[in-house]
Write a structure and sequence with these properties.
Number of strands: 0
Number of domains: 1
Shape: elongated
Number of helices: 9
Length: 211
């Protein structure tokens, strides 16, 4: 299998890596936990936090590859003057950058739980628990622009565009995890469609706007 056929699946790899990276940390202390509780938890789960940092870093890398591939995919359907793919890619970059920062916090929490001041650990823990604004900006930008692009160009089935647009609404609310789920499902759907498209020969490819 050629490299070009593998690139669309980068989105699938990204979703799996990020999901496992978030789950592997377990039930981390809440923002109201005491310094003693925070220090005790991360001292006992330092290996998990380091693993989470590695998985989130790789997930961010694969997401970046997917966002670039999806931008190129949309450009095939936009035609002359199309620019919505650029906004989609910009949002994707913010998502990948947010994952990178969250991975850095995970590394910090796993690397020095026995050395750092308990108050510093508690600060990092609070940051980790509330680190959603960068994701909210990136996820909203990506989902909204991608939904608009899908509805305009039919690059993906229209129902995916509508579902993506609805999911974007939750990105700036306390129900932010719903938007993250929408991002994951959209990424999987787009990855599969892109992979199917690359398998077609030029002679049998569907013309832009006719999907």
């Amino acid at each position: 299998m050629s490299w070009n056929k593998l690139i669309p699946f980068s989105g699938c790899f990204a979703v799996v890596l990020v999901l496992v990276g978030l789950l592997v940390t377990g039930d981390t202390p809440g923002t109201g936990a005491s310094t003693a509780e925070v220090k005790s938890f991360y001292a006992a789960h330092d290996g998990r936090m380091l693993a989470s940092g590695i998985l989130l870093t790789l997930g961010g890398l694969f997401f970046l590859v997917f966002f670039a591939a999806f931008r190129d995919y949309l450009r095939q359907y936009e035609g002359e003057g199309g620019g919505i793919s650029t906004y989609s890619y910009a949002g994707g970059i913010l998502v990948a950058a947010g994952l990178g920062v969250l991975a850095a916090i995970s590394f910090a929490l796993g690397d020095v739980p026995d050395k750092a001041d308990p108050a510093a650990l508690q600060t990092l823990n609070v940051m980790s628990e509330n680190f959603f604004p960068p994701f909210a900006i990136g996820v909203t930008a990506f989902l909204v622009s991608s939904a608009v692009a899908v509805l305009r160009t039919h690059a993906l089935p229209r129902w995916i565009g509508w579902a993506t647009g609805i999911g974007a609404i939750f990105a700036i609310t306390p129900l932010f995890p719903v938007a993250m789920i929408a991002l994951g499902l959209f990424t999987l759907a787009a990855s599969v469609r892109m992979a199917r498209t690359t398998e077609r020969s030029p002679a049998t490819s569907v013309a832009p706007g006719t999907v």
